[in-house]
Design brief:
There is one protein chain. The strands form two sheets. A two-stranded antiparallel sheet has the order 1-2. Strands 3-4 form a two-stranded antiparallel sheet. By secondary structure, the protein is mainly α. It folds into two domains: about 55-175, Cytochrome Bc1 Complex, Chain D, domain 2; about 185-270, Orthogonal Bundle (Cytochrome Bc1 Complex, Chain D, domain 2), CATH 1.10.760.10. It is built from nine helices and four strands; from the N terminus they run αββαααββααααα.
Length: about 290
């Protein structure tokens, strides 16, 4: 039974990796306006989006951690439920287990930490950043520093970062930001949501078996990155409807994001402590 589960996991991870490579080579992002140039070089060689093969996962305790980290990312509800406060899984934002180059991928991410973040005005470790997602995007609580689950997620991301030099600038990091030529129109966003999003996310935005809730008590809270219209618009533009990324105009993506983020969602008790030294984004909802 255990062997069958491991074989299934390796097959799924191999499939996702194959899709990620195809997406990375598709050139679909050529028309997207970026917040910062996504072409970066380390020395004389350009970085390539090249996740490691599942065959490189060692048959050791570290390999067990990596596999557990993958499972937590894909099925957070099952493997880390005690620390989650809504119905989301990590892979709902970091699509394809963090391997989709258009959806805040994990590939190479370990190489940029430790990193100073203005939101809490201190240097953050990768584990700190993972816990931010648990507290905000998953509306839950931080995993203890010695938690095997936290160590597993860090191990998984670190494995996905193999071969990326420490301190490298990742061309694919985060989301490919877009711009709008006008103020977002939530009314048009509501119409677009009904026509293009409701089939999967539900007409009330509370999710279905096909897709997660995008507002309400079971969705991300107001301190999540996705609660910012610019972030949500970038994610929607490149990934939604699922399998039909890049099908919306930039303006329409902004409209849908504005509509979704105008709906009620959980508060975040620690919001008063964010950006203590300034630097708050203009579209922060608080």
């Amino acid at each position: 039974m255990v062997l069958a589960q491991e074989t299934s996991m390796m097959w799924l991870l191999s499939t996702i990796l194959g899709m990620a490579v195809l997406l990375g080579c598709s050139g679909e992002s050529s028309s997207v306006k970026n917040e910062e140039p996504r072409e970066a070089r380390v020395g004389a060689a350009a970085l390539e989006f090249s996740p490691p093969s599942p065959e490189t996962i060692p048959g050791t305790r570290l390999g067990e951690q990596i596999r557990l980290g993958y499972k937590i990312v894909v099925n957070t509800q099952e493997y880390a439920k005690a620390y989650v406060g809504n119905s989301l899984n990590c892979t709902n934002c970091h699509l394809d287990a963090g391997l989709n180059p258009n959806a805040a991928p994990f590939v190479g991410l370990a190489s940029v930490y430790p990193e100073y973040r203005a939101r809490n005005a201190r240097v953050n470790t990768l584990a700190d950043r993972v816990n931010e997602c648990f507290e905000r995007s998953l509306n839950g609580q931080a995993l203890p520093p010695d938690s095997s689950k936290l160590q597993a997620v860090v191990a998984y991301i670190t494995w996905l970062s193999h071969g990326v030099p420490q301190g490298a600038t990742l061309p694919w990091r985060g989301l490919q930001r877009i711009g709008s030529q006008r103020s977002p129109d939530p009314g048009n966003g509501k119409t677009l949501f009904a026509n293009k999003c409701a089939f999967c996310h539900g007409s009330d935005g509370q999710g279905t078996m096909a897709a997660p809730p995008v507002w309400g008590p079971q969705s991300y809270n107001i301190a999540a990155g996705m609660a910012r219209v610019t972030v949500a618009a970038a994610f929607i533009k490149s990934n939604m409807p699922r399998g039909w990324g890049w099908s919306l105009s930039d303006d329409d993506a902004y409209d849908v994001a504005a509509y979704i983020n105008s709906q009620p969602r959980p508060d975040f008790p620690g919001k008063a402590n964010d950006w203590p030294k300034g630097g708050k984004p203009a579209d922060s909802p608080y």
